[in-house]
Amino acid sequence: MEEKVKEKKTIVDAFVEGARNGYKISINSMVPNVLFAFVLIQILNLTGLSDILGKVCQPIMGIFGLPGIAATVLIAGFLSVGGGVGAAASLYASGALGNDHITILIPGILLMGASLQYMGRCLGTATVKNKYYGFLIGINVLNSLLSMIVMKIIVSLF
Amino acid sequence: MENEGKKYSEQVTVRWYGYIVLILTILFFSGVFSSAEGPIKALDFTNISGSFGSLGEITEDAGTLASDFRGTGGSGARDAWLFALTLVPAVMLALGVVKVVEYLDGLRAAQKLLTPLLMPLMGIPGICGLTLIASLQSTDAGASMTAELAQEGMIDEKQKTIFACFQFSAGATLTNYLSSCAALFPFLSVPIIIPLVVVFVFKIFGANMTRIYLNKVCKGEI
Questions:
Q1: B161 to A102: CB separation less than 8 angstroms, yes or no
Q2: What is the per-residue pLDDT across A88-112, written as a single tens digit (0 to 9) for each?
Q3: Cα-atom radius of gyration of chain B, to the nearest Å?
Q4: Which of A30, A99, A127 sits opposite B179 (nearest CB)?
Q5: So where are chain B's domains?
Q6: Which residues in chain A are closer than 8 Å to B54, comparing Cβ atoms?
Q7: What ipTM does this complex have?
Q8: Within 13 Å, how many C-alpha atoms sit on residue B50's CB side?
């Protein structure tokens, strides 16, 4: 009898289950990662490192049509997607990044997103041989950089 | 008693930087650098905590209001908290909708359409379809299902590595895009679908780079 009750999952149950999962991800993963990113940006701003970083990374980030400070978004994104997004949002709020910059950065953040974590959670779990890790991380970075060039072209069309 | 005290002091080993960290931590929470000049002001708890955004100003019955409870001009951990809270409803809605799509067999339909394409697209067999759909929602689920496929001999070592590469770049694509990246949707200057399509194109591109690498460079190894 009990089993029959369990089987009767309605569309409402499905939505609520998904929403609950969204809440869990938000509170346990997104919020702490966003907080980390904001704190990182705050430290860079208070120490004045953000200006230096912006200048140093300008030539490289310029290729993608981005200001130098956007490098912090990619670095934070490499650690966690939430971190990259948080850094981007924080820089957007302060006016350092504009709408086009955010648009270009999104695929960049995702494609190399959380590579460090996913090394264990994805490659480790899938039992990929250790000797390929370096190559696969390289692919993530390459994907990310190329996608930003493509996005730069797409943005210029809109 | 004396013996016990000796035992404890012997047991505790501190790496040299422990003492430096302790001193810095005390300074961090002490507030001595709260109004310091220059980079040193980053070594202060209150400064890193930052401030909540301003909700607006009203003087003489007129003024401005911020668009939401996050306010404007906030910074640091405090601003992060309010900003992150503004994202939660969108994440819950998006993942709720994905679950409904799954319930109504929408994801299975995607899997069915995808299955014949996997071999020409990435050189992996159609049986990977279910795992692929799962990997778009959860990195952990995708990876463990991939390990199972390999264990059962459904895919060989090379196919496993190619498939893992696909999952590794932009892992849990749908979940991450609809949760974290949703924060940036209001700022996009192109339709929301476009960055997602670009991400998929490059996931497949990356998998094929691995395919070429394994076929050409690591010919004999696998």
A1: no
A2: 988 998 889 999 999 999 999 999 9
A3: 26
A4: A30
A5: 2-48, 50-90, 105-216
A6: none
A7: 0.83
A8: 26
